[in-house]
Amino acid sequence: MVNVLVFFYNCLMLIFLFPILLGIFLSGKKNRQEFLYKISERLSCWKVPELDKNKKTIWIHCASLGEARAVEPMIPHLQEYNIIVSAITKSAREYISKIKGISYYALMPVDLYPFIAKQLKKVKPDILVLIETEFWPSMIICANKIGTKIITVNGRISKNAFPYYKLTKFFWKPFLNLISFISVRNEQDYERFKAMIEDKNKLEITGNIKYDRDWTHETMEKESLFFTEQDRIFTAGSTREGEEKKIINVYKEVIKKYKNLKLIIAPRHISRVKDVISLLEKNNLKFVLFSQLSSGTEKDVVVVDVFGKLQAIYSISDMVFVGGSLVNKGGQNPIEAAAYAKPVIYGKHMFNFESEVKALTSNGGVEIEDETELKDIIEKFMYDEPFRIQLGAKAARVVEQQKGAVAKNIKIIKNV
Predict the structure, then answer these.
(1) Is the C or the N end of the chain the one with fewer CB within 10 Å?
(2) What is the mean pLDDT of residues 392-407?
(3) Measured distance CA(244)–CA(332) in Å, rounded
(4) What's this model's pTM, rounded to 2 decimal places?
(5) Measured CA distances, 201 to 25, 130, 156, 162, 174 (Å)
(6) Which residues fall within 8 angstroms of residue 236, CB to CB, at 6 or more apart?
(7) Integer-rounded Cα radius of gyration of the chain
(8) What domains can be seen in the chain, in order of their start residue?
(9) Is 167 exposed, middle or buried (0-12, 13-18, 19+ CB in 10 A)?
């Protein structure tokens, strides 16, 4: 049955590959460059060095930057093995390249049977570790055929994705059953996976490995953005279309009373920076791009137009809004700011981070319904500094209390 499913899956992949590639090449230079980045690796041309034959080999696969960062704390505990790490996005690969203790890293080959089979036979991993929802059918069946045991770490199925998985259970169940062990983040994920697999004994709640990362090692000073100690910084991180307008409207109202409030907007996709600029110009706000910061530039707003700086920006923020939560996008990870002892504000659309929101709400996190509630909480943070600081401290404690998932998952990997 699983062989038939993977055959049809590969046929569909080939059918849709051409229009997808055509769309990428017609969508602009940036998307073309992103796709062509290390294209040989996507086509399964890996240059794997000679691995230590006295060690077993682990292949860890993650998708994007968030998962790559989550994997980092696991690496020091796996040095008795050869470690191969693959990723899907350019930013994740670049991040992995800086992690010490990895034997080899590359972009994941396209999930077509010949490409994946080639690399798995070449690397011959003893264990394939899939992070979160990286359930690639060709990868799973090829690993299984060569005797590689498969583990899912930080397994998750979001509330919105679960109906899709249930509807297509006939397809996913045979592949999930080939996985030796699935560690999940929380009780909700446990129940969703339980409905998708046959052997419930291979499921365990271990917590979220993302909490174990040293989030706060990326820092900066207010002076580097040419702000003063008297300035209070409101950062809107990873914002989506439709949110910036609301944030700017609220900001304009609040600064009528609190002139020392400064705004930093970091759109989720840098390609949308021009849209944010247009909104700021229409609202007559003084702004500067992060890449063009300089002494003496008069500004109320900084627009982040570079990759990899948001985490450090949280370190100098006084309050943080989590993007993707006022519109129906599922939100971003609130613990990225909470770890810095910052009060975190988010809308009701946080279905990608249910357990994090459950832990944070009333403990450093504030859920809002609309612009009015956003304005009210920002003003409260401005006039009640002890409350703001206390809420931030609660958020940091929540992050600390959730740590320990890495140790549990390392134990599972070594046992398997």
Answers:
(1) N
(2) 94
(3) 15
(4) 0.83
(5) 46, 18, 17, 21, 16
(6) 243, 244, 247, 263, 264, 265, 266, 320, 321, 323
(7) 23
(8) 39-205 (3.40.50.11720), 216-401 (3.40.50.2000)
(9) exposed
